[in-house]
Every structure is written in C-alpha cells, then in structure tokens.
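ok trying again, last paste got cut off:
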Amino acid sequence: MQKDIDKACKAAGLYPDVVLSGHAHLYQRFTRNLPSGQQTPYIVVGCGGFAVTKPQENLPPAPVTDGDHTLEVDPILDFGYLTLTTDAKTITVTYRPVTAAGAQPPRDSVTVNLKTGKLIPAGSATAPPVAQAPAKGKKPKRKK
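nice, full thing came through this time. structure:
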C-alpha cells in the first residue's frame, strides 16, 4: 500500500500531513521520516467496532524502527475514537478510549507543524493543549 501512496504523492507533487487507516481492530501510531525531513504520522484506528484484535506479529516494545517508519506507541487494544483539531499552523490527532463509563482521558496524541512538516513534542510550548471532554452530566464552563 505504501508504494501506491508514494506513487500518488509523487504524481501530485505533495505528501500528506497525516495518514489515517482503519480495518485493523486496534490503535497504532507510526511516524514516517521522509528524505525531505518531513515527519508524517501514520495512524491505524479500527477500534470503534466489532472486536479488538492484537497484532498478528509479536513486536518488541515501542519505539521500533523499520526503514523509514517508527512504531511510536505500543498497540492499544481498547475501543475508542480519534479527534482531529486543526488551525492554520498545526493538526493534532488524539486517541481516546471508551468504556461503559464513557470517554476516557487521551491515551495518545500527536501534533504536526503544518509549515515545517515536523512533529511537535507533546508538552512543548508550541504544542496545542489537548481538549478535555467535560465529565458526563456536567456542562463546560464558559469564559466571561
């Protein structure tokens, strides 16, 4: 599949800021380091449906690098969902697991600087804060 993506990107003359994929019934996040210096998160998120399934291969603990891809976090075997937040400078992808009690705190998040094509380290001054969902039954406070 990577060859097809690269062929389409080369023909278009640009590469994606983030690549999202489903089907595998888990959450995984990789970073692809392109020769241009661009860092692209590749995120597999198929954990919103029928069953959660562990990877077919036993992988060593993250981070694991194979060629130009690095598995950044160990596969997460929970049901959950992604949120994408963007502005003119960044795009942030956040994964939240869900239990019978509702949405849980984020388990993973990555932010891309859209100008440089580089990942912004979590917790850095330039990384946008991760939005927290209000607790069930509570309304968010409004600023005056």
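cool. The two ends are 50 Å apart (CA to CA). The beta strands are 19-21, 27-33, 39-45, 64-66, 69-71, 80-86, 90-99, 102-103, 108-113, 118-120.
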